[in-house]
Amino acid sequence: MALARDRRPSLLHRTGLRDAGDDIDTARIAEAVAYLRHRGRATLRDRLHQVHLAMGLAVQAGLAAALAWIVSHHLLGNPQPVFAPISAVGTLAASVGQRLRRTVELIVGVAVGVFLGDVLIYFLGTGGWQLGLVVTAAIVLTTFFGASVAVVIQAAATAVLIVTLSPSTEDLELPRFVDAFVGGGIALLVTAILLPLNPLRVINRAARPALDLLADQLDVCAQALRDRDRSAAQRALDRLRENKEELATFTEAIEGAKETSTLSPARWHRRSELTHYAEAADPIDRAMRNSGTLIRRAVTMIEDDEPVPEPMPDAVVHLAESVRLLRHEFAAGDEPERARERSLRAVSEAGRAYDQGVGFSGSVVIAQVRTTASDLLVASGIEQEDANRLVRQAFGDKDKPGGGPAEQHAAPKPPTAPPLG
Fold it and tell me: Using an 8 Å Cβ cutoff, are 291 and 319 in contact?
């Protein structure tokens, strides 16, 4: 019994263990609360930014709806001009970057719906099962001929209106056609002539969240490598994986800006300036994906306790700064020379890190620095072949047989994946 009592920790010792556990829990809770607070501020900031982005579209839609109602009611004598404002708002709000196409689809869908509604009402009359049959026929017919989703929806909706309102409203078909023309036409008029948005401003606002997200998470990854903080690197990876909304907004803004510069005479002089952004969308998307691979391998590096040469975090920081410079120089309409220089500096630092010795995951991080830098160079307007050549020059001859002296005299390294470029 005495021996058993001796093996039990003293009350003071047990209290000390509990206090140590409390300290660990307190630190974890504080970290979680700080993270949630940061996410809350970021979410509010993102929502305000989304409102800022949508403000121009909201004003355009309001103006188009008002003009469509005035034209249909006062000029064309429609006593209940409901469909014209709906057509105008639908053309603007649901089809950024494809408004001309959507206007045509709107009119085609209305035509199909009117035709099917009138034909089936003539032969079958009106009622619940007739309504169901008309809607089914409209969807099947438009789908069979390969129509878009917009045409299918318009055909079905118009068929519903014809079947339900025709018994109480005479001559509904012609006003529905006219309203479709009026609404779609006024939406294009507002977009092209009355209130054309500045396409570069729209793109700059849309590009900021995507590019800032990429730069910020690369910075977090670099600091995580310095501190060997696996949880920080994992959070950066998780946040970067949530980039679909930012990229979709960016891509949609590019399409909308191209449409505006095509339709609006006041924006024709912006066409050449939009070329940079239009060509940059795909390489920026690739840079996002390759950066995700980079950060994922950084997490593995920390987990496996691989060596982290001092230049490696610096290389990732230079990548982040290259992304920021690319956004700033695009927004200013300047040639992105500084962004290119910073990308190549990232590759040079990656080469130094490779010379100092890396493990398997470290070699993949080096490879992804090279690949991401190449993507950013292409986004800046350099051809892919030239970008690859510049990356190889900045990195050096480490990937060639019989590399530099540092590699020849260094101690053997763990098996490494070949750098990509």
Answer: yes
